[in-house]
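so my prof wants the structure for this chain in the tokens format not the other one, which i didnt know existed until like an hour ago. anyway here's the sequence
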Amino acid sequence: MKEINTAHPLEEQCTEMAAILGLEEPVTEQVLLSALANPVYAHNLLVCRNAPEFMQQLLKNPPKIVAEEGVVPSTATLISNAAKSFARWAATGFSTVSNETYERRLSACDACPDLNVPPPKQGALYKMMGAKVDERKVCRKCGCVVSVKARRNTDTCPEPDPQRPGFNRWQEPIPG
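here's what i got, hopefully its the right format
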């Protein structure tokens, strides 16, 4: 990808990136910053220049920029949480939620501002847990791979719904 000149104000860089991608409107700052931080995302944007539907999907869903530290729990905490979650799940006979509930949960996670790509330092761990390193599939609040967590009937979203007190982002009651 063409190197973006950091001497220009951010708005000019957004316009320049839009020109590179063949877009009429400047890209958002989030798209620009995500493309600079994530080479896979930048590559996908370039590849999709002639595929408007795919391009729009990429522009609407730029990956979060993950800071090196403090974005998700430590590796030791992740392993401990995963073991506890697995034990709770095993105690129910590995039962899962209905497909309808699973899709509702995933939809809520996809719209959540805390959905991130796995941190590079924990990439191998997340790969073992079922997440691709370049996909936004990890909850920044609890560190879980959302596709795994959303399937288990013993797991719950850790974040309260900002519009609905007493419920989490999955629209399920918060245990009290």
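also thought this was worth mentioning. The first strand starts at residue 115 and ends at 116.
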